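Entry:
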Amino acid sequence: MRRIIAENPNWSLVLVPSLSSMCMQCIVNNFEEKQTYEQLTPSQQDFIQERLSLSLPLCVTANLIPDGVYWKRCCEHKWDLCDVSRYGYSWRRMFFERHLENLIELFIPNVTEPKTILDVLPLCKNYVKRLNISQLLPPIKDPQEERVEEEKEIDVTLINEHDEPCVHHFDLGLVLKELANLEELHLVYRVKECGMNFEWNMFEMTKRDCESLAKALKSSKTLKLLRLHQSHVEDKKCRLLVKHLLDHPSLRELDLSHNLIGNSGARAIGKLLTRSQLEILNLCNNKISELGAKAIAHAVSKSSTLLVLNLRLNLVRDEGGTAIVEALQSNTTLHHLHLGGNDVTWLTASALAKVLEKNKTLKSINLSCNSLSEVGGKCLAEAMSYNTTLTELNIGLTEVDEQTASFIDKVVCTNQLRAQETG
């Protein structure tokens, strides 16, 4: 019997690909010209997803390749960190949200063609639920314009005439009106890693930016959360935003922290509380004083939906602080209140003590970094001896004596155990 010895001793018949595998590989190699996918069996579709080129145009893959291995490969190829749990465990949603975010963050007005973003929107509009825009780039200045501005800076009178920055950013209205499923928008008007090119106008929105954003928010009927922070939003811009958010059908959380909102903006936000379904309001680190706090307090007394109110690092003082806590006598929904760092004293603590004796809704209160003194601490301690529902009361750095603070902590711990037992 004759034997045939292969030149390659490792060769065997197993190495010969099957005809079906060769056909599948042919589909992979020619996928852009002939898009065959839905007609295949599940196992064949898995074969395709594992081998498709990651450089295929999005217009080919966006609506044809379902969520799965292909989009996981795309994400892991493009970004080092990929936490799919933050995207509802959808790799396709992660890819399109982060891809669109990157396009917007790198958009340079008057340089980048808007078409680069507008062409992507029809492909990703069904999958984007959240946008986290961490920077918006201003236009690149012409050297001649820079010289003119330097000359203006010499004349103080001219500086006052040009307070409104003229560096407008990408118009987010073009994007928001197309995203029919958008639920969260996190937005910062700033430039990351600007280095020695730092200018203050890189860290604020212009009036035109605000107008276009406000109109877009009004038309975004599915938006549940808006976070616009660290963007120098002052009273005029705040009022303009609120004007377009009144009676918004879906907005539940508003975060305007770390801005420049004062009493006029606070009054507008108070109006918003009475004409919306807001559940969470964060106004941390603004310039709200007594009058603004009173306006918010009046709205809180009428609100039937607000669960969380954060006024940390403002200037509400006792006049505003007492108004806020007294509003809780008629409010039956608020669970969490933060008045830390607001220059309130024992007067606010005393007013709060009267509320705590009867209120059964509040779960946590933060009064840290205020001057409550021993008098305020004793008022709170006496009220807590009657309260069985408050599970957090932060009085750190408030000049309350250790014995009183220890007693309050014990009552809070008891309430926490009771809450756990009752489920």
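The two ends are 82 Å apart (CA to CA).
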